Amino acid sequence: MHEPRWLDAREQQAWRSVAAVILKLPAELEQQLQRDSGMSHFEYWVMALLSEATERSLRLSHLAAQANASLSRLSHVVTRLERRGWVTRRPAPDDARATLAVLTAAGVDQVVAAAPGHVGTVRELIFDALTEQDVEDLARVCAAIADRLDRRATL
Amino acid sequence: MHEPRWLDAREQQAWRSVAAVILKLPAELEQQLQRDSGMSHFEYWVMALLSEATERSLRLSHLAAQANASLSRLSHVVTRLERRGWVTRRPAPDDARATLAVLTAAGVDQVVAAAPGHVGTVRELIFDALTEQDVEDLARVCAAIADRLDRRATL
DNA sequence: CTGCGCTGCTTGACGCATCAACGATGTGGC
DNA sequence: GCCACATCGTTGATGCGTCAAGCAGCGCAG
Q: Cβ(A42)–Cβ(A35) under 8 Å?
């Protein structure tokens, strides 16, 4: 490990703010969903993705990719959601290895009930504090970072 | 639960990018530290804070506040770090309820050894992809969000 | 048409965070 | 002084994520 370039003052300040957001924002979202809807943020995300898919179903591998999760993690989560009756598994018709996760009617209700509170929290925590220009900047910069993260992941 | 304002297209796009960053960035940092230095990001953070404190020691409650963690979480972590010989506990001289966490010599070595790799990863994942303008915007926007998160936490 | 490697998924063990309950010490009102 | 209450910290139970191992089903080479 040879000498890295250290962060300059501006970068340090940026990093501290980013770190604070990364640390606290997920915790707040988690808490709100857990408290108001009895589900984790990740469970919400998974069900939201399913609710937007055709037939309200997706192969686990596709779902995992869209949710930025490992297949293992997703499998555990689907098991839990299945126990609560919000999702069921079904074999994929075209590939006997694959499994479809299907959102049940109760699952749809659950997402619909949870969505307003969740969106409200996101708005409150992020967008209410920002100007239009801020939102644009945020989107641009985060997209650049996310892009880099993706590229690195596939190396 | 009254009607919330939904997110407009620009906000949705911003939110998706933010969510991707929040999801993947911590995972990458975690992995790098775990792989290269055998410690978690949070453990690194705690030891880094201690290394900058006078006497290399802090009361657990202060350390918890600076690390944005619960006292319980911090106590567990200090226990683990103690087992590895990187930190020791010591009663606070001025308040018999309080405990000081003290970074040992081995702990200092550990932080010093881990720092370059960690900083390098932060630079690589965030700042290398950004222009100076980006960094400035990121700092401004994240500071605004972090501020809001703090204010909400104290309500 | 068979053997081998790859893909898709599941499972169990382990580590860490959270939550609630608790013991112990300080502090302010009376 | 004494009691109530707040502060500081620890601990154990529970739940989730990760990692490594494993089992089918698929598909290609020969």
A: no
Write the DSSP string, chain B.
Answer: -PPPPPP-HHHHHHHHHHHHHHHHHHHHHHHHHHHHHS--HHHHHHHHHHHHSGGGEEEHHHHHHHTT--HHHHHHHHHHHHHTTSEEEEE-SS-TT-EEEEE-HHHHHHHHHHHHHHHHHHHHHTGGG--HHHHHHHHHHHHHHHHHHHHHHT-
B positions 110-139 inside 8 Å of A (CB): 116-117, 119-120, 122-123, 125-130, 132, 134-139
Q: List chain B residues with CB under 8 Å of A6.
A: 119
Can you tell me the distance from the alpha carbon of B1 to that of A116, in angstroms, rounded to the nearest whole number? 8
The position carrying tokens 């319980």 is B72
Task: Indicate the pTM of the whole model.
Answer: 0.89
B107-127: pLDDT as tens digits: 999 999 999 999 999 998 999
Min distance B92 CA to chain A CA atoms (Å): 28
* CB contact (8 A) between residue B22 and residue A22: yes
